[in-house]
């Protein structure tokens, strides 16, 4: 559904949310493929330590920039600087996201700052990026936008009363973008991982089926982009079941969800 991204050499790629987890794993994979990278995130300390281990040639291809996806001014400045330095951007991968862990019985006004931060980061953050980069990509007449969402956006889930709705909205946004941007030569990809071993999932107190490592997730993401997929979801033995659940009658879905939670609770 998208032009396959089969040649990574010298591709100009901006990863937003590259400091750890999936974003950092994709960056490591693309360095080995000799892409030109701008790696952005809130805390660059861990990324800087990794950057220091690169060869001199790899370092010349890799730029680190501090960026908060909630701050449109820093996004605009980084995009402007990249356009001047690179002359264009081939792929923008938006990975930045946070998890809230909010349950209905605990929902109070005290939780509102966390809910607002989750929505600002997971949903309004991508809108900030779009508002800045879409004019650039349309002027180029080419480019690709890839969003790391989540299978949590497929169905309503407990323990994620801000996270799951933010990802559901992001999934919906990707579909609208694909339809409207394809005639302009701009590709759009939606990436929906299951459970990946990151800082975010390390705080979970429940069983996570088919847990993947970040490097495995990076492999799946790049493979999906190379195929030209609109949606890449993984691991399929788990995520396919969640996609099927979208079509179930709600009475059956809630019954199966309750059984799954009962089994996974220690």
Automatic annotation (TrEMBL):
E.C. designation(s): 1.1.1.100
EC category: oxidoreductase
UniProtKB keywords: Oxidoreductase
Top-level lineage group: Bacteria
Pfam families referenced in this protein's UniProt entry, alphabetically: adh_short
Annotated Gene3D superfamilies: NAD(P)-binding Rossmann-like Domain
An example Gene Ontology molecular-function term: 3-oxoacyl-[acyl-carrier-protein] reductase (NADPH) activity
SUPFAM superfamilies in alphabetical order: NAD(P)-binding Rossmann-fold domains
Any one cellular-component term (Gene Ontology): membrane
Family, as annotated: Belongs to the short-chain dehydrogenases/reductases (SDR) family.
Protein name: 3-oxoacyl-[acyl-carrier-protein] reductase FabG
Lineage of origin: Bacteria, Pseudomonadati, Pseudomonadota, Betaproteobacteria, Ferrovales
